[in-house]
Amino acid sequence: MRLGASVAYGIAEHLAECPDLGPECYGPIAPTPYYHRVELWASDINLDVSYGVTSWFAAEARLALRIVDTTPTYSELDGSPKLVPNDIHHHDRTLAGPGDPWITARFGGAFGKLTTAARVGVSLPLGSTEPNPYTLARDGRWHEHTQLGSGTVIPIIGFGLSYNTESVELALSAIGFFSLSTNGYGFRAPSRFFAGLRGSVPLLKGRLAPIATFDVAHESNEMWDGLPGLEGNSLRTDLLVGLGLSFEFVKDFRAEVIARGRVARFSEGVSFDTPGFIQASVATHFDTAGK
User: Fold this and answer.
1) 3-state DSSP: the chain helix, strand, coil percent, rounded to 5?
2) I need a surface site. Which of 57, 99, 148, 226 has the fewest CB within 10 A?
3) Cα 230 to Cα 243: distance, rounded to the nearest angstrom
């Protein structure tokens, strides 16, 4: 069982001009373009539960709570602040609610110092979704871009390898979320793929372990009614490097903190510029058979 939380900061800035400014663009005098700047804090709180049925099979589940806080500000072309009351595009608000839970089956085995695992499952559409924001924006209506869920069932496939000795622990893992269908609002969530290499050095008889990670995160386009949003391509691929620490503070209870920073981006998709994120968790295990 693991209880974890992650926090990420992002920022996006763009020049708002016609037709993005809505019905005003079709009046006798087109509105003057101005800059939108949106700061975002996003946090996921996850509870992971795994139940070992046999030595090679386990049933797993994840419950998630998502919290997204956005703060927009505006400026004229010369950089001076601009007041935009009742902006239909961006909102100074905090959204909170359940994310999409996962249910997976894990298969694996140990071969000496090598451990293998494979996961197959689905995420379920419990998180809320919003109507097409680009259609609403075109009509000059209030809309929300943040989606707490996907709105559809998404298949999950993953694998992992780990090699443990007394002096080093190495782990290679990958997981993919294959978004294949569209929800009732015409929204198809991005497919997401993550691959990572993790190394740690056990100290103090394994109670303390410094951690280093190298991760690649890829996200496909978000689609609305079969097309990308008006901003265009949102595909992105990032390389992240992380450092952290794992500590067994009580027998069978381990705390872990990792900070990951983006060191390279291999795509130019429109998205929030996120320098990285921080993850913290506490994990334990129980012998339900009482042995």
Assistant:
1) 5, 55, 40
2) 226
3) 37
Cβ–Cβ contacts within 10 Å for residue 61, how many? 14
| Cα–Cα distance for residue pair 26/19, rounded to 1 Å | 9
**What's the first-to-final CA gap in the chain, in angstroms?**
18
The CA distance from 74 to 49, in Å, is 44
Domain 2-283 grouped into CATH 3.40.190.10:
no
Buried/exposed 177-195: b ≥16 CB within 10 Å, e otherwise: bebeebeebebbbbbbbbb
Give CA–CA dist 115/63, Å, rounded.
26
CA distance 215 to 222: 22
| Total Cβ atoms within 10 A of residue 24 | 12
Q: Name the residue with tokens 């075109």.
A: 138
What is the residue extent of each domain of the chain? Answer: 2-283
| Model pLDDT for residues 42-90, shown as the tens digit of each residue | 999 999 999 999 989 999 999 999 999 999 999 999 999 999 888 888 8
CB of 240 closer than 8 Å to CB of 275: no
pLDDT category of residue 153 using cuts at 50, 70 and 90: very high
Task: Report in angstroms the alpha-carbon separations of 163 from 50, 111, 198.
Answer: 21, 10, 11
Cα(6)–Cα(258) distance, rounded to whole angstroms?
9
Q: Structure tokens of 37?
A: 């700047």
Give the Cα separation of 242 and 248 in Å (integer). 20
Give the number of other Cβ atoms within 10 Å of residue 76's Cβ. 12
Task: Using pLDDT thresholds of 50, 70 and 90, give the confidence band for residue 31.
Answer: confident
